[in-house]
Each structure stands twice: as structure tokens, then as C-alpha cells.
Specification:
By secondary structure, the protein is mainly alpha-helical. It contains 15 helices and no strands.
């Protein structure tokens, strides 16, 4: 089997596993724990397991994968362990145990996001030219996962790929399906091209592994504003990942939710191609602002017009602008201002600030806010509380955008061509989330 074909399958399966349950998990948890006190906080804590695990992922990849064993073997071991943990999660009915089960799974899963990137880097001839084409299969995997669990073609027609199973996204079937695919993928990983540890024999530098040597970039006032804004904007961002699936499910699309939510990834692919075009014409500051303000627009649509299915779908469809204009532009900006010997550490630092610290805080805030306004995650409850729930992160995003607009000055070389625009995805570890 050709190397490129194996890498494509690897990336597809990697994101299929995550996408098949992460979007619809909120609705499942809302029903499973509907009689528990503080159900919104329970959901927030469960989604926070992914961000807790993201904080530890660099340690596993930076030490074991870079120094002790081949990355494809480590990837296989972690996914086989993840398969068992996912099946266990499918049997859990206690909220505290659910937290620990999901945390154990994500501690296995999150390091593999970096592993599949480095496996690709070590086995393609042209990283900037080949990696985006391989990485695209990850986004396709996430999209197909949504269509599969919903058995719906983007909510437009039936897509009966799981005959005999109804509402897979609203039951433990989603975790069981992810477990089966994870087991298959774990075995398949041992057939991937050999990717030996490149740091064997070298001393371990925890500061570099965590990206903390890039803290010197914060001495640049503009980059400090960017870093703080990146952390802050990920607090309202967590509301989308943790609660949109639940909201869309009970208010409009039911079993078709996963397929409808996959429109966000379709949008991501489309706008990814437009980033180089707009970056040259708008510059870093305006691109980042557009991304932030689109988060506010999305939440405003959810909060002010929750009964309009068309506008809710529009809110999902702007995902490409939200994600690509902010995160991809931010990663390119970081690559532009960081010294060559610090670029990897700088990207790791951005990851810790956003998908680590920012999302972690955001998940707990989303849970706390839902309980504070007494959100009842039923259709009637969501329609009654949508304005209170969604306008809070909308206003938060606007406040961050205003702060950024007033304080940020792009001192990088805006007139430079964006080198390697075709390879911009090489900085992304989690392109299919959002």
C-alpha cells in the first residue's frame, strides 16, 4: 500500500474517532444526567476533559515519541487503549465517573493529534506541499463522522449507514462506534511507515517541550496583546463546542444534528483556501478582528433568533470564518514574528493558551453560566433561555475584539508574501473541532 495512501487513511480515522461523538456528546449527557443537580456544569466538566488532556499531551509526545519509541507504534498503543476506554465510557451512568472516563480517554487521544502530524512530516517529500493534502483527509473524516452518527446528509436527506440503529448521537452507540474504529485504527497504525524517535539520546528540556522558551515573545507588546486576546477569545469559543450540538439537537434537527453540524467543517475547507487571498488584502489585524466578530455574530444568531432553523444553520456555517480567520491567521502571524529556532515552541505556546488554558476556563464558565440562568436543556428550556445563554459569550467576544482593536499594532512585515501559504495547515493539530 503506497505511503501517501496509508497516511491519508491515518488522518481520516484520526478525526473520524473524535468527530463521531464530540459534537453530539452534549445532547447525550444532557439526557443521561437530566435529573442530576447542576446538569450544565456536568456537561462543562465533561468537555473540559479534552482541554485538561491537551495540557499534558506535549509531555507524552515530547518525551516518549521523540526519544523512546517509534511514533507509529506509540500511536497504535494509544488508540488501542483509547478503544477500551471509549467502550467503558459507553457504559458509565455516573457523572463523576464520566469525567474520569473521558479524561482517561483524552489523555490517550490528545497526544496522537501531534503524532499523526509528525508521522506525516517524516514520511513525505515536501512538507509544505504534501502535508495540507494529507491533513485535508482529517477534516473529511470529521465530516463523514457527523454524517454517519446522524445518518443524515447534512440534514437534507437520509444517510442510512448504520441500519437498525436509531439516534446514534443521542445514545451510547456513538462511543461504541468510536471504540470500534479506534481499535481498527490502533491495529492499522502498526502498518504505517516507520517514524523513529528523532531526539533519542538528547537531554529532555521541559521548558522547550511545553513551549515556555517562547515566553520571550511576550516582551513584544503587540504579540503580548495577541496572546492575551487569543486566551480570552477561547473562553466564549468553548460555549460553541460544548453546547451547540445539544442546542441544535433539541431545538431543530434531532437525530440529524451531527450531519448539520458537519456543515461547519465544509465551511472550514472553503474559507481555508481563501485565507491567503484575504490576508494579503486585509492584513493580520483585520483578519483576526473578523474572526473574533464572527464568533459574536454566531452567538447573536443563536440567542436572538433560536427558533429560525435557517439562521441557526447560518451560525454553524460561519465556522469557517471563525476558525480560519482567527486561528490560521494567528498561527501564521506567530510563525512570522518568532525567531526560526523558536517557531515550534511558539506554536506550542499558542496551543496552550487557546485550546489548553482558554478552552479549559471556557468549559467551566459555560457550565457555571448554564446553571446560573437555570438552563433546562429541553426544547422549551433552550428556547426560553437561548438569549441569556448565548448573548453572554457574544458580548464577551465583542469585548475581546474591542480590546484587541484598541491595543494591537501589527509590527510584522505585512508586505511580505505569505510563504508556504499552501502549507499553512502544518501548524494545525485540531482543525476539525470547532
Amino acid at each position: 500500500m503506497p505511503v501517501r495512501f496509508r497516511l491519508n487513511i491515518m488522518m481520516f480515522l484520526q478525526f473520524f474517532i473524535w468527530g463521531v461523538f464530540f459534537v453530539t456528546m452534549g445532547g447525550y449527557l444532557a439526557k443521561l444526567f437530566e435529573n442530576e443537580e447542576g446538569v450544565n456544569s456536568i456537561i462543562g466538566r465533561c468537555y473540559a476533559t479534552q482541554t485538561w488532556a491537551a495540557l499534558f499531551a506535549p509531555l507524552i509526545v515530547g518525551y516518549i515519541g521523540d526519544r523512546l519509541m517509534n511514533k507509529e507504534k506509540l500511536n497504535g498503543i494509544l488508540h488501542l487503549a483509547g478503544a477500551g476506554l471509549l467502550f467503558w465510557v459507553s457504559t458509565i451512568t455516573d457523572p463523576d465517573m464520566m469525567f474520569w472516563g473521558l479524561l482517561a480517554f483524552f489523555i490517550c487521544y490528545m497526544p496522537t493529534l501531534a503524532l499523526v502530524n509528525t508521522i506525516t512530516f517524516q514520511n513525505v517529500r515536501d512538507i509544505e506541499g504534501d502535508f495540507p493534502k494529507v491533513r485535508l483527509w482529517g477534516t473529511i473524516g470529521w465530516i463523514i463522522a457527523g454524517l454517519t452518527v446522524s445518518q443524515s446528509f447534512f440534514g437534507l436527506s437520509d444517510f442510512p449507514i448504520l441500519p437498525g440503529i436509531e439516534d446514534a448521537g443521542g445514545t451510547a452507540v456513538q462511543f461504541q462506534l468510536a471504540a470500534v474504529v479506534s481499535a481498527i485504527y490502533g491495529v492499522f497504525s502498526f502498518t504505517l511507515p516507520a517514524s523513529p524517535p528523532e531526539g533519542r539520546g538528547k537531554s529532555v528540556n521541559l521548558i522547550k517541550v511545553l513551549g515556555f522558551d517562547a515566553l520571550s515573545l511576550l516582551l513584544n507588546p503587540s504579540y503580548l496583546v495577541f496572546a492575551i486576546s487569543s486566551f480570552l477569545i477561547c473562553i466564549p469559543l468553548a460555549f460553541y463546542y460544548a453546547r451547540t450540538g445539544d442546542f441544535v439537537n433539541v431545538v431543530h434537527f434531532g437525530e440529524s444534528t451531527g450531519g448539520v453540524m458537519a456543515l461547519g467543517q465544509v465551511s472550514e475547507i472553503f474559507f481555508m483556501a481563501l485565507v491567503p487571498f484575504f490576508l494579503v488584502r486585509l492584513g493580520v489585524k483585520k483578519m483576526l478582528l473578523v474572526g473574533m466578530l464572527c464568533w459574536a455574530l454566531r452567538y447573536a444568531l443563536f440567542g436572538l433568533m433560536p427558533s429560525s432553523a435557517a439562521l441557526v444553520v447560518l451560525g454553524i456555517a460561519v465556522h469557517g470564518i471563525c476558525y480560519d480567520f482567527f486561528f490560521v491567521t494567528g498561527q501564521l502571524y506567530t510563525d512570522r514574528v518568532a525567531p526560526k529556532d523558536m517557531r515550534t515552541s511558539a506554536q506550542a505556546l499558542v496551543g496552550l493558551l487557546t485550546y489548553g488554558a482558554g478552552m479549559l476556563v471556557g468549559n467551566y464558565v459555560a457550565g457555571w453560566w448554564g446553571d446560573k440562568i437555570k438552563l433546562d436543556p429541553t426544547k422549551e428550556g433552550w428556547l426560553a433561555a437561548a438569549q441569556d445563554f448565548w448573548l453572554m459569550p457574544a458580548m464577551f467576544a465583542v469585548a475581546v475584539a474591542v480590546l484587541f482593536f484598541l491595543l494591537f499594532r501589527d509590527n510584522s512585515q505585512d508586505d511580505e508574501s505569505v510563504e508556504g501559504a499552501d502549507g499553512m495547515n502544518s501548524h494545525l493539530n485540531q482543525a476539525a473541532m470547532d
